[in-house]
Amino acid sequence: MLDHIAIQVNDVAASAAFYDVVLAPLGGERKKQYGENISFGVTGHPLWLVPASDPSPARELHIAFAAPDRAAVDAFYAAALTAGAEVLHAPRLWPQYHESYYGAFVRDPDGHNVEAVCHRP
């Protein structure tokens, strides 16, 4: 249903460096730069980082990235730790969502809740 989403960030370069690291284990990479805006994706441009237009604190956004398997979730988590992310939840099963839901949650440089999730057993 979604074609793309843009999130406002305080420092596009710092956020792009973070997403370079954490999306690589999921097959994601920088796709395009348009002015100050930078896109990421596996194909297309589904995630855009754009400069914040207001210096006031933004509301937390939750973004979940699909992982092909549990090893990719673990690699996302390790990459996030390397990038200095705050840990919200280490990789584990979340049976309250469904029996095969395996996810890890971290905060990006702007405080957004970023997740990698695998739905496969």
Topology:
Layout: E1 5-9, H1 12-23, E2 29-34, E3 37-41, E4 47-51, E5 62-66, H2 70-82, E6 86-93, E7 102-107, E8 113-118
Parallel strand pairs: 1-4, 5-8
Antiparallel strand pairs: 2-3, 3-4, 6-7, 7-8
Helix pairs in contact: 1-2
Describe the structure.
By secondary structure, the chain is an alpha/beta fold. It is 21% helix and 38% strand. It has a single domain, classed as 2,3-Dihydroxybiphenyl 1,2-Dioxygenase, domain 1 (Roll), CATH 3.10.180. The strands form 2 sheets. It has a 4-stranded mixed beta sheet, with helices on one face. A 4-stranded mixed beta sheet has the order 5-8-7-6, with helices on one face. α1 packs antiparallel against α2 (70-82). It starts with a strand and ends with a strand.
Question: Per DSSP, what share of the residues sits in E-state strands of 2 or more residues?
Answer: 35-45%
Average residue pLDDT: 94
Q: What is the helical fraction, as a range of percent? A: 10-25%
What structural class do you assign from the helix and strand content? Answer: alpha/beta
SS element count, helices: 2
Report the CATH topology name: 2,3-Dihydroxybiphenyl 1,2-Dioxygenase, domain 1
Number of domains: 1
Q: So what's the CATH class?
A: Alpha Beta
Radius of gyration equals 14 Å
Query: What's the β-strand tally?
Result: 8
Order of helices and strands: EHEEEEHEEE
The geometry reads as: globular
What oligomeric assembly is this protein in? Answer: single chain
Can you list the strand order of the major beta sheet? 1-4-3-2
Poorly predicted tracts of residues = none
Which homologous superfamily in CATH is the superfamily? 2,3-Dihydroxybiphenyl 1,2-Dioxygenase, domain 1
- Span of the ends, CA to CA: 25 Å
Biggest β-sheet strands, sense, barrel: 4 strands, mixed
Based on the structure given, which CATH architecture is correct? Roll
